[in-house]
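Chapter review: from sequence to fold.
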Amino acid sequence: MPESAGRTVHASAVLVGAKAVLIRGASGAGKSRLVLGLIDAGRSGGLAFARLVADDRVRLEAAHGRLLVSAPQPIAGLVEERGRGVMACAYEAMAVVGLVVDLDAGDAARMPDPLALQTVVEGVIVSRLPVAPGCDPLPLVLSLLQGRR
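The token string follows.
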């Protein structure tokens, strides 16, 4: 039985390996671009596995101490690529979140406070990567996911 009923929020998510990356940021911050970059890294061998969970809106739910992410049904399997529109994409119905990436984060720092590297979402503590405004998030996220950081 879930600990919370869950809620739908403005974010995107990609399953990478066994855990999902939840990507938060304002409209136009690059959430969909990061989603597509991670999926491409999965296809090219830069990551062992990467598949869309949801783009633009996600449903978050705490269950048994884990944060679950899924796609709201109307947008399941759809991803937006600027200049091309909305496209169908293979997707996972649900995943456990292992990392939150905050795009254009005001608290991003060269030498971050360890407390800034965690966040609480739906009552669950999750690892966090704050990305500074104007910074390309893909190399940072890939480095972290590949264990180089």
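Two observations follow directly from the output. The chain has a mean pLDDT of 93. Residues 7-145 form a domain with the Rossmann fold fold (CATH 3.40.50.300).
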